[in-house]
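User: For documentation purposes, I need each entry recorded in a consistent format: the amino acid sequence on its own, followed directly by the corresponding structure tokens. There are two entries in this batch. Please keep commentary to a minimum and don't merge the entries.

Assistant: Recorded as requested. Entry 1:
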Amino acid sequence: MMDVVLVGCGAMSKHWLDAARQIDGLAIVGLVDLAADRAKVRAREYELAGAIIGTNLDAVLDQTKPDAVFDVVVPAARREVALSAFAHHCHLLTEKPLADSPENARAIVEAARRAGRVHAVVQNRRYVANVRRIRRFLDSGAIGAATSIHAEFFVAPHFGGFREEMPHVLLLDMAIHTFDAARYMVGGEPASVYCQEWEPANSWYRQGSSATAIFELGGGRLFTYAGSWCADGFRTSWESTWRIVAEHGSLVWDGEDGLRAEVARPIREGLFDRTEPLAVPPLDPRDRIGGHLGIIQDFVRAIETGSEPETRGADNIKSLAMVFAAIESAETGRRVAIAQEG
């Protein structure tokens, strides 16, 4: 049996609680929120009659003595929650992003290391089936090593609320999903970035709704990202659209079900080498998928077996470093080196 306290009972907490109740042996023993009524609503919705409700995390942890904390608070409060969890000898699973600044991210990862606790981030795009298939396909060498990775993200949601007022809204709020997926799919280590943000005339955001970035991922590989939160028409998938160019062919993914690859053959036809379609193998049974559910299962498994979860903070900090370096580049107008974190 694993007892868990969830802190932060806003809209996102529903995704966590939906997943948690599908895991045998996991019990939500406490709900914490600055607005106690919000926590009480979640308790009623999910029939958590025995859960302790509170507005102070330390007090609820003292009372419940759980094995783990689920952190669904706003990023600005993440460091405080993490340090409280580790001080109470709890493992910690946190919503993305890991932190609201590079300094806080490093402090959280170091605190987890000192405490000897499992610490992971809900970076759920890794748990998408086609992301897993692409990684395995590239690892097979069927089209050779990747040389460039290109992703486009163009959607136009009218969120209302804080997103439309926050700075660097695309980079801070969404781009880490695409950055982390790119790093995962090709096994890249980010080295540098040049990024530019702008606010189109049609934007309803205050700042940073559109951005383009060029990352070096090591080994001569480049990753280009182009995105917008205010691009009406021809909407892309929330997973972005992708083209991965490799030594002997290319792979394209529409972010949904359309996943195709072509390999070049040593037969010249006019100006071009002949290309032939190549099947991308189906999902491997060993691949972990399932969004929030898959990540929580991975987190629980890591605690039970003494292993490390895939989205552990010490690794995820590398994807977060891409975000902060892109922001620094956009603010300064220069190429920014990305420190090797973790």
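Entry 2:
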Amino acid sequence: MALIKAVIRVIGRRLLAIVPVFAVVTILVFGALRILPVDPAQMSLPPSATIQQVEDKREEMGLNRPIWEQYTIWFKRAVVGDLGVSSQYRMSTATIVLERLPATIELVMCSLVFAVFVGTVGGLLIFSANGTPFASVGMMVTSAVMALPDFLLALLFILLFGVLLPIFPVNGRLDPGLQVPVHTEFLLVDSLLTGDIKIFASALNHIALPVMALGLAFSPTIVRVLHSSLINTYQQSYIRQARLRGLSDREILFGQALKNAILPVVILVGTQFGGLFGGTLLVEMIFSFPGLGNLMVKAMQTADLSVIMAIALIYCATTLVFNSLADAAAYLLNPKLRNG
């Protein structure tokens, strides 16, 4: 119970600490968008709007006021969930973003699970093969994959598994003609709730390539961190004592070393989650995946400032929150931090 309370206090302190950081980010992003040579009032009106209508709209949006007053107006509205109106879709920005958010969350979470699985298994295999040619080849492959950005992996997977070996679909989230009743807004979960294996298989096939592109771009870092952490862990005295007690290599690895060596991986996953979230920008566009990343690209093409602002803040908030959760996880898993 005491440990749980301590972790809650740590999470609370970290979340409170990100409030001023988030406020500064909103100011920077808002200021950057306002100095662009784009008139939000004109963009929010039809092309046939008159000059007077544009001026009236600018007055309504507060664009004739100093930039600090514009930010104050925007901030007061944002606090109550009013993120403005999309100039491209002519509807509430909050509604548009919330419609796309579940798809991106589902993609990122699946990619994270895939990356952690591949990275952990790869790190354990390479460590177990230390001193052999397999370990050298494994580290070489890891370095090669690490050098490839996620969007290039996405293009390679489309070429390999979508064109040369057409195993997976390369766009969308579901086969044409299939419909899923909405329960949770997460397609994989909703397709499972229908009990129709065909629909679930279609959703899984559509998300497979984007998940592989994002996950494989992140997994080499996990491999390297886990491998290095295991090497350092095996130099500790308690590992030598475990060997003197006659424990097998398997028992030492999974019973003693791994639970301590995994801590840097947990911290890495938490701190890099925001990068994985941001990586959806190009991957979603390449696979025509209807998430926030795809929406962000279209918003930038049409200078839809309210949508750009909203998505940028979601990316920022996600990064800050998961960094805080990573700190809390480190506190929970590392006795030295709790006792220090």
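Summary note for entry 2:
The chain is about 75% helix and 0% strand.
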